[in-house]
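Why do we care about 3D structure at all? Because function follows from shape, and shape follows, mostly, from sequence. That is the central idea of this module. The next example makes it concrete: a single protein chain, its amino acid sequence, and then its structure expressed as tokens.
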Amino acid sequence: MIKNVIFDFGGVLIDWNPEYVFLKEFRGDRAQMNWFFENICTSDWNEQQDAGHSIEKATQERVDMFPEHESLIRMYYGRWKEMLGYEITGTVKILERLKQKKSISLFGLTNWSHETFPVALERFGFLNYFEDIVVSGTEKLIKPDHSIYKLLLDRNELEAEECVFIDDKLINVIAAQNLGIFGLKFDNAIQLEKELTKLEIL
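And the structure:
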């Protein structure tokens, strides 16, 4: 019986996309923008900050490596708030329905820099619905490392088989499943609603 629903945030409840800033900076040239993301400010580099690396140090390290791109590199975190988009309305509505159920407890498990997460807390009131939120940057652990899932379970005295975990990245869902948590790969709110209804949670 599922008693606990664990949500990832980015791509599930909250839209975040560096394109909101950089596509304009590259004047709509998506090929140039993608080259920048694949070679300079890469997803792997961003994940280091999600794992707790200092944004200031990470930025300076990248500037030292690619000084000719300094202004764009500093823009990545300097204009980070502009990359934080809107709430994903359909999923938030599901979250609100779950919040009304006394039989369900809500938890968050997110790969997010501890330096930027307070911005999301201030902007999105629904983040107050969660009994506990494990932020990778704070814990210096990152999905899909099993340790971060175990931290959430242990800190809240949860049984894995009583939890369902929702994430938009399959690798993170598989990691949860390996620990006995029921994992759901998020594609869209309609699909999620169907899955949760099958589980008799909604």
